[in-house]
Design brief:
The chain has 590 residues and is of the alpha/beta class. The chain has four domains: 289 residues, TIM Barrel (Alpha-Beta Barrel); 42 residues, Helix Hairpins, CATH 1.10.287; 51 residues, Arc Repressor Mutant (Orthogonal Bundle); 105 residues, 2-Layer Sandwich (Double Stranded RNA Binding Domain). It is 38% helix and 18% strand. The protein has 18 helices and 14 strands. The strands form three sheets. The protein has an eight-stranded parallel beta sheet with strand order 1-8-7-6-5-4-3-2, with helices on both faces. Strands 9-10-11 form a three-stranded antiparallel beta sheet. Strands 12-13-14 form a three-stranded antiparallel beta sheet. The relative contact order is 0.07.
Length: 590
């Protein structure tokens, strides 16, 4: 048996038996991880039996998004936001188009209370935006919460209490009946205070915290009781917000729980069914999407998913997931970098470079096969837009590896393809064309990609478009080689060319410029046969490419000049100089 490496002495390489029923292709062994300490979800909470319909549904419109960055997200920060940072975040959320915003937990700190008061007296809240304030089920905290919203035209008061068995037993010391009585008392107090707030239209929200770990019949009993107590009606609906406070199961089970509530809640047309997924299993986005399929109408989360532990569900990802399916997200994400920078400034937390839609590298390809597909896809998109008579930014999008057009969220195409040692000829050619107007012949692309790979392998660093141009000119233009062009002119009998080699000039004449150059080179002792030639206009003149056989060796060269004819001659001369330097076309032996 092969010895196990001890390079990581703190790790215990699995050495248990291979399961008897494991297929031959799976040699994984039992680990020493104490998995027996944990119970599967179906042993921790009752999963309601339903004839589920949500798998057959589609999301065809955005739910009501409710950002909780200023409350739940703020509570998760090592350095909670002060009023200026809170106001900056609030203004961003308003500018993006959010219509219901959880603005704070007024009884939790003086900062939160003062910020809610700031919103109430400053006129910062637009007429179509409703602030939400959060409170625990205690009368003194509820009263402080109502004091904070005095003077606001409208507000939602969000009451929460943990309802799951472990929380009842360990944290609250209440049985089901005792906890239900505590919730009813708090909700009744909220109703009395709401009637006494002059000039403020108050609606109610309830969160049975850790809903996903609570018995379904108990949650239903509590929520339906509050629907009646708060006298919910279609013109004054209550919000029942059902959090996956700590993810414990696969997203399909959360969807089953939501569909059960969706079907059994009383006065369903007077209830807004809301969800608040966290991301402990890394499936918060999936939980939210499946919950909407199952009947949820409102989703609470944070921009870029900030929140305690692994975070709240990410509203940016959710909204742009809909956008990528052709559904209006109902919020503006057209400058993703401004949004991200503002969130980073307010939270003092970085957004990961691979974060969906918003990270620095999410529209960037380093892999050669990806780059080639993207480059071809972008070219095809431009042609298709032209054929339809549409602007490129209005044409239907279908580009490999890019689920949305980066330009739709304010990104440029400059960073879509970047080059390192993993990159290929397609991406390198794309950057040379986009940034420098060089349209390399296909055979030359493959050869130059090896030049780039050698350079990036040696440096271990990324090659910028400027680096690529420098490498290309150094490898193929060779302006200062052993043979130089002295003159190329047209006369009555054709073209006349003179070249200088080792201090001696030689001349030649031909019907075409390249024929005259070949004659001059032959006179200097160099036999040249042109195999392929092409070129195109470029900024300041022309670029030409030539593949020649020089003394039996096939080799590429390139030339740049204000005059296309001279550029062609320089390309042939560059091929000659490369051959004299011992370089050759490594794609052909012919």
């Amino acid at each position: 048996m092969t010895a196990v490496s001890t390079a990581f002495p703190t790790l215990r390489t699995p050495a248990g038996p291979v399961p008897a029923d494991a297929p031959a292709w799976n040699p994984q062994r039992g680990s020493a991880m104490p998995h027996h300490r944990y119970r599967p979800a179906h042993e921790r909470v009752e999963i309601p039996e339903i004839r589920r319909t949500w798998p057959g549904h589609r999301i065809e419109r955005a739910p009501l998004w409710v950002p909780v960055d200023l409350r739940d997200g703020n509570q998760a920060l090592a350095e909670p936001m002060d009023t200026p940072r809170k106001r900056r975040m609030f203004d961003l959320l308003v500018a993006m188009g959010f219509k219901e915003i959880e603005v704070g937990y007024p009884s939790s700190s003086r900062t939160d209370f003062d910020f809610v008061r700031h919103l109430a007296v400053s006129g910062a809240v637009p007429d179509d935006v409703t602030p939400v304030v959060f409170t625990a089920a205690r009368r003194d905290l509820i009263e402080q919460t109502f004091a904070s919203i005095q003077g606001m035209p409208r507000a939602v008061v969000h009451l929460y209490t943990a309802t799951a068995p472990v929380w009842r037993d360990v944290v609250l010391g209440q049985d089901r009946a005792g906890l239900h009585a505590l919730i009813r008392d708090a909700a009744g107090h909220i109703a009395l205070l709401a009637d006494a707030v002059p000039g403020t239209a108050v609606r109610f929200e309830f969160s049975p915290e850790v809903f996903n770990c609570t018995e379904p019949d108990f949650v239903l009993e509590v929520c339906n009781g509050l629907t009646r107590l708060w006298d919910a009606s279609p013109d004054r609906p209550v919000i029942h917000n059902l959090p996956a406070t700590v993810e414990i199961a696969t997203p399909n089970l959360y969807a089953d729980q939501i569909e059960y509530m969706h079907r059994h809640l009383e006065r369903r047309d007077a209830v807004i069914l809301s969800v608040h997924p966290h991301n402990d299993r890394g499936t918060g986005v999936a939980c939210a999407e499946l919950a909407v399929l199952a009947g949820a109408q409102r989703v609470e989360g944070c921009l870029f998913g900030n929140g305690e532990r692994t975070g709240n569900v990410d509203l940016v990802t959710l909204a742009l997931n809909l956008y990528a399916q052709g559904v209006d997200p109902m919020v503006d994400l057209s400058d993703i970098d401004v949004i991200r920078r503002t969130v980073e400034e307010c939270n003092r937390l970085p957004v990961h470079v691979r974060h969906p839609y918003g990270g620095d590298l999410v529209y960037t390809a380093f892999s050669g096969t990806h780059q080639d597909a993207i480059s071809k896809g972008l070219a095809h998109h431009e042609r298709a837009a032209a054929e339809r008579g549409l602007p490129v930014g209005e044409a239907p999008w279908s580009v490999p590896y890019l689920p949305i057009d980066p330009a739709d969220v304010g990104r440029t195409y400059e960073a879509v393809i970047r080059v390192n040692s993993q990159s290929g000829k397609g991406g390198i050619a794309h950057l040379l064309q986009v940034h420098h107007g060089l349209d390399l012949p296909k055979a030359l692309r493959a050869e130059f990609s090896r030049v780039v790979q050698d350079a990036t392998d040696r440096s271990g660093q990324e090659a910028t478009p400027k680096d690529l141009l420098r490498l290309f000119r150094a490898a193929y233009v060779l302006e200062d080689g052993p043979v130089t062009l002295s003159s190329l002119t047209a006369g009555g009998d054709g073209f006349h060319c003179r070249v200088r080699r080792d201090g001696r000039e030689s001349g030649g004449t031909g019907a075409e410029p390249v024929a005259a150059l070949a004659a001059a080179l032959e006179a200097s002792g160099i036999a040249v046969r042109l195999l392929w030639q092409g070129g195109h206009p470029a900024e300041g003149g022309a670029v030409a490419y030539a593949r020649c056989r020089v003394g039996g060796t096939p080799v590429w060269g390139a030339g740049e000049d204000a005059d296309a004819v001279t550029a062609s001659a320089r390309a042939v001369l560059a091929a000659v100089n490369r051959a004299l330097a011992g370089q050759r076309d490594d794609l052909s032996q012919g």
